[in-house]
Write a structure and sequence with these properties.
By secondary structure, the protein is α+β, with helices and mostly antiparallel strands. Helices cover 35% and strands 29% of the residues. It has one domain: Gcn5-related N-acetyltransferase (GNAT) (Aminopeptidase), CATH 3.40.630.30. The protein has five helices and seven strands. It is globular and about 35 Å long.
Length: 168
């Protein structure tokens, strides 16, 4: 199936919500358990939270769409805590679509969306070795670690990775 990357709209909220629920459980249940993961989905990926990210000024929310289904999503925004830095907040591909280049295609588009950014930054759950490997293949490298991925006091350690962006 061929997926095309496009900007998300409010009409995508329900499909994005379903994709994030499915993908979070497939990715994180082995590390944190289904109950903890459902709490994460409910807190971070409610339809209202997704709608807010889609509508946020200065952010870019993309979907990979085949005309029938959404196979992946990506969301990044300028990072107010660091000059000239864009933060990649979410990049998830439906488990049945992984390995088809959708994540790479979404990231390639996100890389071009922030002309003032010199760095793209991402926080990756320490136990998510598949994602760590993916980001390394995209040119990211570890710059720091943190004890609370996703939310303050989460107790979920993470690796902070960065990639230098080419001037536009």
């Amino acid at each position: 199936m061929v997926y095309f990357v496009r900007t998300a709209s409010e009409r995508d909220v329900e499909q994005v919500h379903a994709l994030l629920g499915e993908t979070f459980h497939a990715t994180y249940d082995p590390f944190y358990g289904a109950v903890q993961v459902q709490r994460m989905v409910d807190a971070w990926n409610s339809p209202a939270a997704i709608r807010s990210r889609i509508l946020k000024r200065g952010g870019e929310f993309l979907v990979a769409d085949n005309g029938k289904d959404i196979g992946g999503i990506g969301y990044a925004a300028m990072y107010p805590k660091m000059a000239k830095t864009a933060m990649l907040h979410q990049l998830y591909v439906r488990p049945s679509c992984q390995g088809e280049g959708i994540g790479r295609d979404i990231f390639a588009e996100l890389e071009t969306c922030f002309p003032d950014a010199e760095i793209m930054r991402v926080e990756v759950a320490l136990k998510n070795t598949r994602a760590l490997s993916f980001y390394e293949r995209l040119g990211f490298s570890e710059v720091d670690r943190m004890e609370a991925w996703g939310a303050p006091n989460s107790g979920l350690p993470a690796i902070i990775m960065e990639k230098r962006l080419l001037p536009h």
